[in-house]
Amino acid sequence: MSDYLVSPPATVSLPIAGDTRRFPVRRIYCVGRNYLDHIRELGNDEKEPPVFFTKPRDAIVQDGETIPYALATQNYHFELELAVGLHSGGIRIAESEALSHVAGYAVALDMTRRDLQRALADKGKPWDVAKGFDHSCPCGPLHLAKDVGHVATGRIHLTVNGQTRQDATLEQMIWNVPAIIATLSQQFELAAGDLILTGTPAGVGPVQPGDVLVGEIAGLGTLTTRIGPQA
């Protein structure tokens, strides 16, 4: 007889490049407004610090999969981001110690229901419905820091159907990875398995069923995501 009323949810994980093991995802934290050009393209106040929000871990989608066009939106957007996976955590982590908690890095997408986000923001309401929905976090394999180093520079680039839509460098982030980890740990107890999306550069835009998105970050390979019809 099971100890549970219903079956426990399955473990959500990412493959690890060059390794047979997988990275189990505990929580997904996201940073908003971390590239100045993206802040400006959305008409937000560039003097405000980046904001933090979360996605459910089962929003993860593996590299190469097709995701349905999201429910309840007519303006479904891509946002390409550097993801950081942690092998340990804590509270009040010093910025100088932050990278010691990083297991590795990956290419990720923060898929967004932009029309819902704008409507919620206009009313001062939280973004959960606009950000934390099904299939909203496609993510590529984790590349271990011991193999690729700590990723802080290089091109971040996304194409839709072969056409460049986002093209920037990681150096343009307002808050770098150590600063993000240190700040998050002031508000949450971070732990092994946490995945942090670090914000997107300018060029975000809508997708349609049939589109093929290919995101690439220097040294981390590519992430391919196809958009299917709405369920």
UniProtKB/TrEMBL annotation:
It comes from the Bacteria. SUPFAM superfamilies: FAH (SSF56529). InterPro entries: Fumarylacetoacetase-like_C (IPR011234), Fumarylacetoacetase_C_sf (IPR036663). The keyword Membrane does not apply. Keywords: Hydrolase, Metal-binding. Residues 28-227 form the Fumarylacetoacetase-like C-terminal domain. It holds the Pfam family FAA_hydrolase. The keyword Metal-binding applies. GO terms for molecular function: hydrolase activity. Transmembrane segments: none annotated. Gene3D superfamilies: Fumarylacetoacetase-like, C-terminal domain (3.90.850.10). This is Fumarylacetoacetate hydrolase family protein. It comes from Viridibacterium curvum.
